[in-house]
Amino acid sequence: MEQLVDVIIIGGGPAGLNAALILGRSRKNVLVIDEELPRNRVTKESHGFLTRDGVTPAQFRQIAREQISVYPSVQFVKDTVISASGSDGNFEIVTAQGQTYTGKKILFAVGMKDRPLTISGLQEVYGKSAFVCPYCDGWELRDQTLALIVNSTTALHLAKTISGWSDQFTIFMQGAEELTIEEQAELAQHQIPIIYSPIQHIHSVEGMVQKIECEDGTLIACTGIFFTPELIAGSDVPRMLGCESADTGMMIVDEFGKTIIPGVYSAGDSASRKYQVVAAASLGSMAGVSINSELLEEAWQSKANLSLK
Ligand SMILES: Cc1cc2nc3c(=O)[nH]c(=O)nc-3n(C[C@H](O)[C@H](O)[C@H](O)COP(=O)(O)OP(=O)(O)OC[C@H]3O[C@@H](n4cnc5c(N)ncnc54)[C@H](O)[C@@H]3O)c2cc1C
């Protein structure tokens, strides 16, 4: 059993790393446990974070870790957390490699995970010419001939959004639910083709999409794809402690990342739908501040109690 640290951070993406930076600078003993499987690992470049536009996700983490290494009270372990127990002030974490760690507070910065992609050929192009967020990758696909692989909930919204980057795109409807008459009329007004036949296969060369083949034989050439991903919670471990989550898998927290379980926090994609590196880092920072405040308050009170004895 390792020594009791102030904070165990589970997940070393932008949220967990920014929390570690704040807590390290606050002189707290921190252990970051990270299995190093972030959602954006499929992509070559990460965009939209000031001073880091265009770096690889791995470079982003490497720079962050180098900067955090200045603060000696932060330690990193590569491992997967498989269970958690205990309560505020004394949580116990067990990992896949059989290690046990104890911490006063816990921050889950575990992100979200993509459900396995079921469309044939989509995995091969994901992160190379198929993306999920136009703010992250729309610029690189501007003015190209695109395919939007969507469902009834996301079709109109994504069409409107993508129109800011390209006016040449085809909608590929997937799933049983249909668009409403009004939605169909709105898309028709903008002369956006809609294909209802399910996708049979996405043809690509070295990750670059060439054409999409549908079950009814339709073949549409395109050079880029945006699609609606299906997400699940990054980890089941928060539930073992009684944390609440929405149907989407997103953990329920207050504005500082506090869950309903005392001493347990969550930040980043696991606790918000902002899904951007800069947002995840910001939420991690806020959670770090909140955790530090709680630890300071506890230390302050316990010193006062001792002096009364
Ligand atoms: C294809 C793609 C491209 C993207 N491009 C951009 C972009 O260009 N710009 C942008 O701003 N955003 C982009 N995003 C979104 C961005 O990646 C996320 O918003 C951001 O990474 C969220 O940070 P996070 O720290 O919350 O989670 P993550 O970065 O996902 O990190 C979570 C970490 O927790 C670890 N973890 C999970 N469970 C456990 C466990 N039980 N034990 C130990 N470790 C665990 C994971 O392995 C992972 O390392 C992209 C997303 C995708 C899918």
What does this structure look like?
Homodimer. It holds the Pfam family Pyr_redox_2. Its cofactor is FAD. This protein is α/β, with parallel strands linked by helices and 309 residues long. The chain has 2 domains: 190 residues, FAD/NAD(P)-binding domain, CATH 3.50.50; 106 residues, 3-Layer(bba) Sandwich (FAD/NAD(P)-binding domain). Helices cover 28% and strands 27% of the residues. The protein has 8 helices and 17 strands. Strands 1, 2, 3, 4, 5, 6 and 17 form a 7-stranded mixed β-sheet that branches. A 5-stranded parallel β-sheet has the order 8-15-9-10-11. A 3-stranded antiparallel β-sheet has the order 12-13-14. β4 and β5 form a beta hairpin. The radius of gyration is 22 Å and the shape is elongated. It starts with a strand and ends with a helix. The mean pLDDT is 96. Bound molecules: flavin-adenine dinucleotide (FAD). Flavin-adenine dinucleotide (FAD) binds next to α1, β2 and α8.
Biggest β-sheet strands, sense, barrel: 7 strands, mixed
Number of strands: 17
Residue stretches low in confidence (pLDDT < 50, at least 5 long) are: none
**SS-derived structural category:** alpha/beta
CATH fold title of the largest domain: FAD/NAD(P)-binding domain
Helix and strand succession?
A: EHEHEEEEEHEHEHEHEEEEEEHEH
CATH architecture of the largest domain: 3-Layer(bba) Sandwich
List the total number of helices: 8
Q: CATH superfamily membership of the largest domain, which one? A: FAD/NAD(P)-binding domain
Ligands in the model, by name, code or SMILES, are: flavin-adenine dinucleotide
Determine the strand fraction and express it as a percent band. 25-35%
Mean pLDDT metric: 96
Q: How big is the Rg?
A: 22 Å
Shape, per Cα inertia axes: elongated
At the first level of CATH, what is the class of the largest domain? Answer: Alpha Beta
End-to-end Cα distance:
32 Å
Q: How much helicity do the residues have?
A: 25-40%
How many structural domains can be distinguished in the coordinates? 2
